[in-house]
């Protein structure tokens, strides 16, 4: 009932924009107007291209995204895609269990893993990032699961068995380059959510998983129809005392400024909850 109320309120707001003529003419604005007309006046269905959050339907959430499309905040964009970083690689025997990013459980059969230096990790902004790492002997893909506090910018601490794939193990420390690539498991599956142990309607920690690219911001839709940003902890959970009992509507922004909206996400502290949408390539 609350979601229906919010949609009605937002629809009235859109109608006010139309009557007030507050949307200036122009190619992108005309597209916004077309979508508004379709949603408010039940006109001819618009193109499936308007399904911006990839949930196989065109609705008010796509209107919200269309209003933001092409206009990501500079603070939301970390770097251009395929940016190449450089640093040193070392190795250690941890990261699959108890890593700072708290992404357990991770199987060695699925991923090589790495710890990342403090500056690039950036309060878990690159937690769960999928990296292509290149050294003198080859290239591997690794998942960021842990923190390397003593490392300088660009440094990685690879899992012991992964290091020999990029350089002779006897060297111990070698120069490498790396870049962020799309997470392979996100190619055919939506994002998912894990709630921190002890989460209730009075306090909740939520973690976004299986995101194609790293997450820079998580917001929830409150009872007044406003998206509220959740603070992020270094251990890769977004936390709040105001989320309530759910189900939730989340707006998620990745490091490239792309935005998705996911809805009807229940509070399920004992299981990983599958979402409905995924970031574009």
Characterize the structure shown:
- The chain is of the alpha+beta class.
- The protein folds into three domains: 2-71, no CATH class; 77-181, Beta Barrel (Barwin-like endoglucanases), CATH 2.40.40.10; 187-274, Expansin, cellulose-binding-like domain (Immunoglobulin-like), CATH 2.60.40.760.
- The protein is built from four helices and 14 strands.
- A six-stranded mixed β-barrel has the order 1-5-2-4-3-6.
- The radius of gyration is 21 Å and the shape is globular.
- Mean pLDDT is 84; it is low at 1-31.
Strand content: 25-35%
Number of domains: 3
CATH architect. name of the largest domain: Beta Barrel
Low-confidence stretches: 1-31
* Order of helix and strand elements from N to C terminus: HHHEEHEEEEEEEEEEEE
Strand order of the largest sheet: 1-5-2-4-3-6
Q: Looking at this structure, what is the CATH superfamily of the largest domain?
A: RlpA-like domain
CATH topology of the largest domain: Barwin-like endoglucanases
Rg, rounded, reads 21 Å
Structural class: alpha+beta
| Beginning-to-end CA distance, first to last residue | 34 Å
Helix content: 10-25%
Number of strands: 14
Q: Sheet bearing the most strands, described?
A: 6 strands, mixed, barrel
Total DSSP helices: 4
Shape descriptor reads globular
**Mean pLDDT, rounded to whole units?**
84
CATH class of the largest domain: Mainly Beta
């Amino acid at each position: 009932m609350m979601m229906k109320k919010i949609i009605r309120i937002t629809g009235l707001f859109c109608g006010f924009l139309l009557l007030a003529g507050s949307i200036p003419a122009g190619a992108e604005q005309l597209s916004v107007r077309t979508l508004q007309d379709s949603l408010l006046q039940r006109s001819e269905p618009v193109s499936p291209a308007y399904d911006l959050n990839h949930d196989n339907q065109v609705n008010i959430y796509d209107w919200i995204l269309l209003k933001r499309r092409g206009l990501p905040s500079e603070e939301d964009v970390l770097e251009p895609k395929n940016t190449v970083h450089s640093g040193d690689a070392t190795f250690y025997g941890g990261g699959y269990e108890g890593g700072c990013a708290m992404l357990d459980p991770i199987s060695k059969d699925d991923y090589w893993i790495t710890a990342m230096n403090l500056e690039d990790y950036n309060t878990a902004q690159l937690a769960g990032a999928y990296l292509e790492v290149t050294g003198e002997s080859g290239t591997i893909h690794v998942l960021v699961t842990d923190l390397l506090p003593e490392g300088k910018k660009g440094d990685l601490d690879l899992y012991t068995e992964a290091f020999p794939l990029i350089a002779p193990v006897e060297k111990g420390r070698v120069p490498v380059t790396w870049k962020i690539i799309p997470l392979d498991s996100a190619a055919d599956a939506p994002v998912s959510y894990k709630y921190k142990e002890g989460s209730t309607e009075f306090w909740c920690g939520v973690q976004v998983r299986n995101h194609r690219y790293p997450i820079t911001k998580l917001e929830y839709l409150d009872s007044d129809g406003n998206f509220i940003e959740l603070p992020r902890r270094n251990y890769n959970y977004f936390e709040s005392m105001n989320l309530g009992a759910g189900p939730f509507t989340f707006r998620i922004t990745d490091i490239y400024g792309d935005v998705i909206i996911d809805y009807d996400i229940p509070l399920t502290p004992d299981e990983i909850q599958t979402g409905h949408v995924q970031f574009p390539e």
